[in-house]
Each structure stands twice: as structure tokens, then as C-alpha cells.
Amino acid sequence: MIAMGGRTFVGLSVLAVAACFPFSLAASIGFAGLTTFLILVFRDPGRKIGRGIVSPADGIVREVDEGKRYVSIYLALRNVHVTRAPAQATIQTVNRSPGTHAPAFSRRTLGNERAELRLNSNLGEITVVEMTGAIARRIVLYVKAGQTIAKGQKLGLIRFGSRVDVFLPPSATIAVAKGDKVLAGVTTIAGVTDGRVE
Fold first, then answer.
1. Parent domain of 69
2. 77 FRET partner, CA 20 to 30 A, in 5, 56, 149, 163?
3. Are 68 and 138 in contact (CB under 8 A)?
4. Main-chain phi, psi angles of 55, to 5 degrees
5. In whole angstroms, how large is the CA radius of gyration of the chain?
6. pTM to 2 decimals?
7. Are residues 98 and 71 in the same domain?
8. What are the beta bridge partners of residue 132?
9. Dist. CA 117–CA 94, nearest whole Å
10. 56 with 85: CB under 8 angstroms?
11. Which of 103, 83, 106 is nearest to 94 (CA)?
12. Are 59 and 83 in the same domain?
């Protein structure tokens, strides 16, 4: 399945293949390659939702800070770019901030364009921050403030390589380490210490 927010790109690329085919085999092959790449980038596979607080994104854990209750995930071009809710919650606020497009794995991303979603869950407040990168230029959100969402529900799409940070409630015990591979909606990134379950 192709993610919402990526279907137009894939559709236009397919049309370009069809338009070029009678006139230029080389151009058709080029656009066919582009179509394959876009299908890979914008794929949206089904997921079996995991236990505890789950990862909001596919990728590699780039940083963990136990004191700040913080996990940062880097999404490479090869990763699925659909983001998902880490827990069942009500979306309290959605804030978009314009900014630069520094590489998502660098420390200069503090000024990058971003969307911050503050979630009120029965486990406590969780904040998900989606950032653009050097190639990613747009965050397409599927949700809005005031909406109640299920754990693993799709939050949006970050086009191309990017980064997602998640700030966890005090009751959470972080269950991942730097360098771990995670899958959105599947991988448990934190458990809860006070007996509440998700």
C-alpha cells in the first residue's frame, strides 16, 4: 500500500513512464526506476501493534536520554516514513514550526522544520516531534488536535529521510538503546513501572 501524501508522486511517475514509452526507451527506464524508488519510500505496510509504549517511527535509535525521558530515531531513505502513535491518547496540541533542513542525524536539527504533537495518554503525557531532514521537505499530518487516537494509529508521513523524537512520561522505563533498530507501532521503546498497562 502507498502512504497518503505519497500517492501523487507515485502516480505522476507512473504517468511519466507511460508517456515516454512510445518515444524514448531510455527515459521510460529512468522513470520506471524513479517509480520503484518512490514506491519503496512511500510504502505503508500493515503492522501488528506491540506492547507498552511503541516506537512512533521506523529507523535506528540515534540517542537515548534517561534523565530527559527521551528517545530519538533517525529514518534513512530505506525506512518506512509513516509515523504512528506510541500509545492510545488524545491529541492535546499540534504545533508546526518552519525552519531549516539540516541532515536529520546531525546536532544542527534543532532549527529544522518540525511538527510537535502533545499526547495525553493514561500513561502520562507523551510528546512526538517529527522533523524534516536534508532531503525531507514536508511533514504530512493525518491527525489534528482534539482527536482520540489508538496505539499504532497513523499520525502522518515525513517525506524522505528524517527524524522523530519522543519524550516519555515519568512512569516510563526506556527499553531501547542507541543503535537499536525499531519499527513504528511494533517495537516497544518503553515499559511502565507503576502497574498501568497500555
1. 53-192
2. 149
3. no
4. -65, 135
5. 18
6. 0.80
7. yes
8. 162
9. 5
10. yes
11. 83
12. yes
The cell numbers describing 144, all together, are 489534528
| φ and ψ at residue 119, rounded to 5 degrees | -110, 135
pLDDT in tens, 30-40: 656 666 666 66
Residue 38: phi and psi, rounded to 5, are -65, -35
Catalytic, out of 13, 28, 162, 171: 162
Q: Which amino acid is at 123?
A: L
pLDDT digits (tens, 9 = 90+) for 70-112: 999 999 888 999 999 999 999 999 998 876 555 555 555 566 7
Helices (H), the chain: 7-20, 25-41
Would you state the cell numbers that stand for residue 169, as one nine-digit string?
512520561
| Residue 28 appears among annotated catalytic residues | no
CATH no. for residue 117?
2.70.70.10
Q: Which three cell numbers stand for residue 72?
A: 530519538
User: Do residues 82 and 144 share a domain?
Assistant: yes
Angle of CA points 188, 167, 159, to nearest 5°: 80
SS3 122: coil
- Cα atoms in the Cβ-side hemisphere of radius 13 Å centred on 164: 34
Strand partners, 140: 157
